[in-house]
Specification:
Layout (H helix, E strand, L loop, with lengths): L1 E5 L3 H13 L3 E5 L10 H4 L9 E4 L8 E4 L1 H12 L8 H31 L5 H22 L12 H10 L13 H11 L2 H7 L7
Helix pairs in contact: 1-3, 1-6, 1-8, 4-5, 4-6, 5-7
Length: 210
């Protein structure tokens, strides 16, 4: 059975949503990043970059165990392992999905993550940083809204990995001080994805003890 090392972050939930979408059984291994569990030697042996999520598949492509880190790599690995329609077979459609996946990996995630940090976690308020990442966050929401005014989902007519990657980040729109009413196409897309049972299950992972 696959082991998913994760926590309650957007990147972690990208992986759990994808596992739910493709229907593979998995065990959740909670890595409490608030307590520094990502720096433990046993976790660093899985990911030298000390980031979640990490996935260990005992039945890799050659039948041997494989460890996969980086959330985008996990999404692609799972899609290819299961021949999922979330990763289009058509080369042109796959290219579009890949572009929007990279938009999330290289832009949306890092910028929104910095927005989170300077608004919620920084030991002191730095107005320049809050304004800088707040402005860029709004720009990225506008990019999404324009795109989703053209097509139902980021890569076109069907849900793909790109949507799975972006959804958990947009789920924290209140953390970004973003009102989705100002981005009606994003709001429509967000509601549509949120109705998928696999998305609902994946967003509930991991369950933390209180």
């Amino acid at each position: 059975m696959i082991d998913l090392y994760t926590f309650t972050t957007p990147n972690g939930r990208k992986a759990s949503i994808m596992l739910e979408e493709v229907g593979l059984p998995y065990r959740v291994q909670v890595i409490d990043i608030m307590r520094g569990a990502q720096f433990a030697p046993e976790f660093l042996a899985l990911n030298p970059n000390n980031k979640i999520p990490v996935m260990v598949d005992p039945q890799g492509p050659d039948g041997q165990p494989i460890t996969v880190f980086e959330s985008g790599a996990i999404l692609i690995y799972l899609a290819e392992k299961t021949n999922s329609p979330l990763w289009p077979a058509d080369p042109r459609q796959r290219s579009v999905a890949l572009q929007w996946l990279m938009f999330q990996m290289g832009g949306l995630g890092p910028i929104l993550g910095q927005n989170h940090h300077f608004r919620r976690a920084a030991p002191e308020q730095i107005d320049y940083a809050i304004e800088r990442f707040g402005t860029e966050t709004e720009r990225l929401y506008k990019v999404l809204d324009r795109r989703l005014g053209e097509v139902p989902f980021l890569a076109g007519e069907a849900v793909t990995l790109a949507d799975i990657a972006c959804y958990p980040w947009i789920d924290r729109h209140d953390w970004h001080h973003i009102d989705l009413a100002a981005f009606p196409n994003v709001a429509r897309w967000f509601d549509a994805l949120g109705q998928r049972e696999a998305v609902q299950r994946g967003m509930a992972v991991p369950q933390l003890e209180r």
